Amino acid sequence: MTVDAQEEFVAWLRAKGYSEGYVRRVLAVGKAALNRAWKRQEVTEVPWIELPPIGEPYPHTASDDQLAAFLNAIPEDSHLWAYCMIRLNTGCRDDAARDLQPFQIDWAANLIRLNPEGRQQTKKYRPVVPLTATLRRELEALDAAYYVNWHGRHIGSIKKAWAKVRRNAKLPEWFAPKVFRHTVATELRRRGVPHWEVSGQIGHKRAGTSEIYAKFDPDYLGAARTALDAWMADLSRKVPRMRGQSGVSHLRKVVGGTRIELVTPTMSR
Length: 269
Description:
Blueprint: H1 3-15, H2 20-39, H3 64-72, H4 80-90, H5 94-99, E1 105-106, E2 111-113, E3 128-130, H6 133-140, E4 149-150, E5 153-154, H7 159-168, H8 179-190, H9 195-202, H10 222-236, E6 250-253, E7 260-263
Helix pairs in contact: 4-6, 4-8, 8-9
């Protein structure tokens, strides 16, 4: 584990085409393992591991047309549909979507606990987020131990299924699963959601002691919830399978006002 050996390893990873972020994560895992062994007195000393600089953030976001093309290319019986609906309506990471189970849904409070009870939080924080009207309708129709499943079994990876759908939708290679999270954050800001709500929605802001009970406020992340449902309503115009799933059918002007009011299914009857 000399400096020369580390540099050769880093060069080998880069030559294989891995991103700077991935190279850094690989070395960080090794560094953490060595430090743990030293802490537990399994070794008497550990080498210094030089981590590469933090890479640039993922630069891509998807347009509504690209999202619609991908969603419309998903086969009727594919587990990717539930996966995409969860990610687009929560802004969560890949593993949180694949791991989501019915007991994590608080139907009465309209909340999703992305971090199940008993699981220790990590640096990739899983927050409690609002259950949008769109996602509620999707999940209510599913009956399985895991919402994202293949014949009832937990999905370990969606990479192969994703790649096939992406090719069928004629989308670029950068259209990877992580584009959803970046697109959700960008769309929320574009729709005027305050930055602190966006941070809370995607898990960049950890709940402090004074915020433990905030999630039970009826307006908890209310702007984010409203914006997500409105966005899903816009997407549904291009994705037939989504029609009727959004809690918002369209927008109309308020008589005598300058605002716009979201029309609920009840109001539109």
